[in-house]
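Format notes (please read before filing issues)

Several people have asked whether sequences and structure tokens are stored in separate files. They are not. Every record keeps both together, in the order shown below: the sequence lines, then the token lines. Line labels are part of the format and must not be stripped during preprocessing.
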Amino acid sequence: MPRTPEEDARASLEPLAQDERPAALLIAVAVCIVLALAVLAGAATINDLSRHGGSLPGAALLAVTLGLMALAGAAASFEAAFRAVPQDMDIAFEAAQLVAEHHRAVAALRAALEAKPDPA
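Then the structure lines:
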């Protein structure tokens, strides 16, 4: 059975060294942590969050999501020595898809909660 181009690409790569971490993954983890802290700080310091289009539960949910992404990225970073880079990029892509799905779900939930019943 012939190999796919993806299998050829993965076979040509060497695993990362024990202490080697992908820079893009480390930067993504740091960005998630900073954004989670910024969301929490913003939610805690704005008196009337709903006036600005937000809510405390929404801010907490966003901060938790960002924190979980940072945790997943950190776990992938520490396991990176045992895998080749494309698999780490697969994890990053899946994390980005998860965030996009989360935002769509939150937007749909918010729209459903804000929808006014049709007086019929």
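For reference, the curators noted about this record: The first helix runs from residue 5 to 12. The two ends are 63 Å apart (CA to CA).
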